[in-house]
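**Fold in tokens:**
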Amino acid sequence: MHQIFKEYDLNCYRSWVEIDASAIQHNLKSIKSNLPDCVDVAPVIKANAYGHGLDCIAKILPPDQSLLCVDSLEEALELRRYRTSNEPILIMGYIPTGSLQYLDINMIPVVYELDQLKALAEHRPNHKVHVKVETGLNRQGVTLSDLANFVEKIRDLELKITGAYTHYANVEDTLDTSFFELQYDLFQKSLSLFPRSISVHSCASAAALLHPNQIGNFARVGISMYGHYSSWQTYLSLRERGVNCELRPVLSWKCKIVQVKNVKTGDKIGYGCSHEVLRPGKIAILPIGYYDGYCRMYSGKSVVLINGRRAPVLGRIAMNMCMVDVSHLDGVIAGQTVTLLGEDHSLRISAEELAEISQTITYEVLTRVSKHLPRIIINSE
């Protein structure tokens, strides 16, 4: 359930996500300043725009993008509803044969299987395609040994190759570039099999910023557009290379306090009596749980922000609720706003902090924020 309001009444919501339009524009400008002039940015809006709301990001992005990237046909069709121009949309994931009839002329499927080519030629003759080349990640892709025959089959079926790409396996998680160089060399060798006029793209966020002269025509920009570095290794590598790419987080997540209550020594909090009160104090109940994307692994480890101060989560996070300690805070009342992710005064709860707590990556923290929560655009022009 996505609802977009330029202005909103906080009385309407118990929890909501704020999407900062000015941060998106800032991040795109910062990224582009570190890329060669000949390289265009292809925004990646898959996975509900990395949890930010596909509809919100579609409305925020400047018009007439050279290429937009999604994972599914469903995402492509939804994206079309919110964009004013018929921009090319690259569909990077699997499209069931029965859905091919819904492709429009500027929805470009990624191809990597012969049966896929035959079905596409039957349902959408002369359609444009991008070929995914397997260079070492071992997900979708055509191996180099099969590539010549695959390209020839595309020509035989009279489909149009308009792009070729690959995806790197080990850029953001390491300071060692050797596997990247291996994949890059393999991809460069593969390009001799394609028409010279096609689009070429191999770099996502980390690779684009770390290897700007090895990109091709497009940089597929996902996590960095949303204001996060791909990993701490990516951040360190950029610092070591003197790359100045300041990013601002786009997403904040907030909720209201449901109730404030006193607790006494020995009281238990949460399922399994997982927290025992050691001294008299106060707790606040929040209408947020793991159903909403506030991970159960945050239980007893994460904090929220109330009036610019930290309040630790107590006990187990439940499906729709959790409790926080507000004993040290004055003036906390029901209906007050709480920041679960984002900035409040001078403090910030970052997606990176929550990722570390739950032993995962920033991408998962963001995409876990449930689609049913309203996304609200702020700081739009």
User: Anything to note?
Assistant: The first strand starts at residue 15 and ends at 20. Residues 144-156 form the longest helix (13 residues). The mean pLDDT is 95. The domain at 34-240 is CATH 3.20.20.10 (TIM Barrel).
